[in-house]
Amino acid sequence: ETILLALTSTLLSSIFALIMSVIGSETVGISRAAAFAVKLTASFFRNMPVVAWSLLLLFSFKQSQFTGLLSLTFITFGYLTRSFMETIDEVAGDVVEALKATGASWWQIIFQGVIPSVFSQLVSWVLYYTENNVREATLIGILTGTGIGFIFNLYYRSFRYDAAGLVILIVAVIVSAIEMTSNKIRKELL
């Protein structure tokens, strides 16, 4: 449950973050007002801690996996939107200028210029936040009563420190395995 929660929240937030970052980019964005609104939205979602999101959503959706999914999705959306916008603005400037000079439409600039030129960096950011979300999903599981966080909390409260330590070890092994896998994928892409 914990790994699926982390993967799902990262996938959902990366899709919405890509859309918002293209809209809010200074290089290819729609307008300055849209860029300001996207930056403000990303800042709002990013600056509220994941624990605060979890507790806030806990009152609305009770203890459930959906609460954890929303918490992780919201905070990851904020971070990925900001990261994607900065990546697009740094990398795609020359590509956008060249495509505009040839008379390409906005859609052609986005899908044939910007996204292919920044794809490997975007994947790198998504992999980084996948690793981060696995760790965060454990904490959220303690608050929402789901996944491996719930199991850790159950053992810890019943003074079964040996089993709680084993749960921590399992989380460390999972995070290490995901990190090694993502580093291998990054090396292949870059």
Can you describe this structure?
Helix 7 runs antiparallel to helix 8 (161-189). The chain has 190 residues and is an all-alpha fold. The protein contains eight helices and no strands. The radius of gyration is 19 Å and the shape is elongated.
The helicity comes to over 70%
Distance between the termini: 31 Å
Tell me the β content.
under 5%
E-strand count: 0
How would you characterize the largest beta sheet?
none
Shape estimate? elongated
**Cα gyration radius (Å):** 19 Å
- Average pLDDT works out at 88
Q: Number of helical runs?
A: 8
Structural class: mainly alpha
Q: Can you tell me the residue ranges where pLDDT is under 50 for at least 5 consecutive residues? A: none
Give the ordered list of helices and strands: HHHHHHHH
Give a short summary of the structure.
The chain has 8 helices and no strands. With 190 residues, the protein is mainly α.
List the main descriptive attributes of the protein structure presented here:
190 residues; single chain; 87% helix; mainly alpha
Topology (elements, then pairings):
Layout: H1 2-24, H2 32-47, H3 50-61, H4 65-91, H5 93-101, H6 106-144, H7 147-157, H8 161-189
